[in-house]
Amino acid sequence: MFCSQCGTKLNDNAKFCSRCGQRVAMAAPPQTPTPVTAVQPTAAPVAGVSQTVPVTAQINQTAASAPTGQTAPLVNLAASATPVTPVQVPAMPTATVPAPIAHTPVAPTPAPTAPATTAPAPAAVPPAISPATSPIAPTAAAPANPITSNPLIGRLFNPASLKTMLVSLGTGLGAALAVGLVAALCISIVIPPSSWLSALSSSNSSVSYALDGSDAYIAMPNFVQILVAIVIAGLSGSFSVQASGPVGSNNAYVSLQQLGVHTSIWLPVGLSGLALLIGAAFGSYMLARKREAPVQVRWDGAASAAIIGLGSGLVLLILGALFPLSIKGSADQFSASGALDGASLRTFAMGFLLAGIGALIGYAMARFAPDSSNVALALWRWTHRTRGFVRTVVESFAIYWLVFTVIGVVVFIWLIAQTHQPKLFLLLFLAFPYLPVALFALAAFGTIAYSGYGPALNFSLFGFAKPAGSSTSIDSSPAVAVGWQLWLLFLAFVLATIVIVLRTSLRNMQDPWYAAWKHTWKSPVAVGVLWIVFTVIMSFGASLSFNGFSGALSSILSNYDLTSEIHPYHFSIAIAAWFFIIAGLWAFIIEALAMRVGPTIIASMPGMGKFLAGGYVQPTPAQIAARAKARLASVS
Fold first, then answer.
1. How far apart are CA 161 and CA 20, in angstroms?
2. Which residues, other chains included, contact 301 with Cβ-Cβ below 8 Å and sequence gap of 6+?
3. How far is CA 321 from CA 228, 341, 347, 534, in A?
4. How many Å apart are CA 576 and CA 582, to the nearest integer?
5. Residue 54 three-state SS
6. Angle in degrees, CA 177, 183, 189, rounded to 5
7. Tens-place pLDDT, residues 555-609
8. Whole-number Å distance between alpha carbons of 13 and 24
9. Distance between alpha carbon 334 and the CA centroid of its chain, in Å?
10. Radius of gyration, CA atoms only, the chain
11. Which of 339, 327, 337, 256 is nearest to 556 (CA)?
12. pTM for the full model?
């Protein structure tokens, strides 16, 4: 049997092509005439009489035995090329019995179109086979398509896979733009761009003087530029500052790039980045779960997710280049311009990472939990069906995330109330999900570290800490104490950890295979790797670098005697890089307590089982297991 798409030779019981993924259409077997064997008479023979039973008698008996209202099939004797020899039935010495009622022979109706039934025709013609169902001979196979020459590439670029990838990419970008649209509308209403000009002129006397001229003109960013800037900022993409204006005594127009100055500004992942990840997951799951073989090989989903991430990064890179957040102004004979350009390598990388991770989650859920209506429900069901350290890591992440998100919302509202600045609620689009992650790091004895210009600072449950002997505006002591409210974070962390330990213990009692010390290293390693990623994407900062001094910049700096004071500048505020070790240590403590302490607590409090019932491993439905076996069989 061969594939009708690419001509690859397949197993007889294959349902899908191993090269291109095409569903194999089972060809109907050719219909051949079946010869009819003469039927022996059923009437008892007359004693002592040698009887000759012609074939016509057989036909009559067949017709007589047919049910009422039906016509028995007739045999065409005229069409037969071989004469029919009568069947000799030997006489049997039996007692005299009444003779059966004789049936009047009925001559068969000639049917010229019917084939011979007693013997095959000498020149039998095989029935015609439809071109749609005829197998493709190996010698007639078309030349291999370069795209489908590789089985993985063939599966990735078939129409169903391409449609799934396009839907996932569109859903992810659409969700990110929707969040950015809401944020841009709020900013335009609460802080319209026209008010930016008055704030700028009131803070700088030179700008105020220039704008007082009769021919002064300034162009503020438009709505689309604000929208794109919010989306890129929420992805933790970076912006480069571009500015140009008159410099020197001759008022020559130069730009920062011409002066050799390069800048970069970035923020942590915000709501638009989270929307991109969730939207890509929803899109890939929505279509992949409906396909009969959503992910035939484990690398299909990863490769498809990489393609989706690549498309997302390119689209965001183009948007950043087309719509920079720009301000232009002119007064008298002078003009200047400035812009935040989001077209950067970090913007592409973060778009690729977030969309790729989201799409990969969707493909994975389509493989392991295709019995759900959306990816959120699939994640919920898959979480309760998985076992071992994977269940521990996912469940810990979900519980901690829920607890510290609630705390983050409370802290955010408290800050707005304390500062009496309702406009701070606009920071909601950039403060989440960074705020819950930072609060968790503080509660688990981590630190928020500042590095860059001036002495480094570390903020933890014990307050601000700085290097000994350094002087800052915070205080002259090595550490500055903070309120007792921060220790409430630690209390919430301990309570959430106890719940995780008890649920893990209950699961180990139900599934004792993983209740062994040889498995306790897996969860800490997975948690440590995840926190390395979080440390990279949950940071914000800026950098200023000089690629040497151009002639114009050197003359300007020398006039003000600043050449020796200009140095590259970089600062960042992020979770301490070493926190992944602390997180891994907490994961090991959870595993150890679940093995040694948890079972004793559960046994002493029988009623706790109902409260922790969600920790049990739920069985995988039979149809999901059968589908997985069928998928593996189709690949093999």
1. 11
2. 288, 295, 360, 363, 364, 366, 367
3. 10, 7, 11, 27
4. 10
5. coil
6. 135
7. 555 554 544 445 667 788 899 999 999 999 999 999 999 999 998 988 888 777 7
8. 10
9. 52
10. 40
11. 256
12. 0.72
Six-digit token pair at 253? Answer: 């127009």
Which residues of the chain have a pLDDT value below 50? Answer: 36-134, 136-137, 140, 205, 209, 214, 292-297, 471-481, 560, 562-565, 636
On whether the CB atoms of residues 271 and 429 are closer than 8 A, the answer is yes
| Residues 404, 435: Cα–Cα separation, whole Å | 9
Match 């601000």 to its residue by tokens. 464
Q: Give 179's contacts (C-beta < 8 A, 6+ positions apart).
A: 231, 234, 271, 272, 275, 429
Beta bridge partners of 242: 339
Amino acid at 577: A
Amino acid, single-letter form, for residue 445 = F
Chain-centre distance of CA 607, in angstroms?
39
Rounded (to 5) percent helix, strand, coil in the chain: 50, 10, 40
- C-alpha–C-alpha distance, residues 261 and 454, integer Å: 21
**Measured distance CA(51)–CA(98) in Å, rounded:** 16
Helix pair 159-190, 345-368: axis angle to 10 deg: 130
| Percent above pLDDT 90 for the chain | 35
Give the residue carrying structure tokens 């105020």: 208
Residue 145's SS3 state is coil
**Diameter over CA atoms, the chain:** 144
pLDDT digits (tens, 9 = 90+) for 206-241: 555 455 554 566 777 889 999 999 999 999 999 998
Structure token digits, residue 180: 């950015």
| The pair of three-digit structure tokens given for residue 508, joined into one six-digit string | 């180990």
**Residue 73 DSSP label:** P
Is-contact 268 538, C-beta < 8 A? yes
Tokens of 4: 């009708």
Q: What is the DSSP string of 497-511?
A: HHHHHHHHHHHHHHS
DSSP label of 38? P
Across the strands, what pairs with 541? Answer: 266, 572
Joined tokens for residue 551: 């002639």
Q: Which of 371, 204, 389, 173 is nearest to 283 (CA)?
A: 173
Sign (positive or negative) of CA dihedral 591, 597, 601, 604: positive
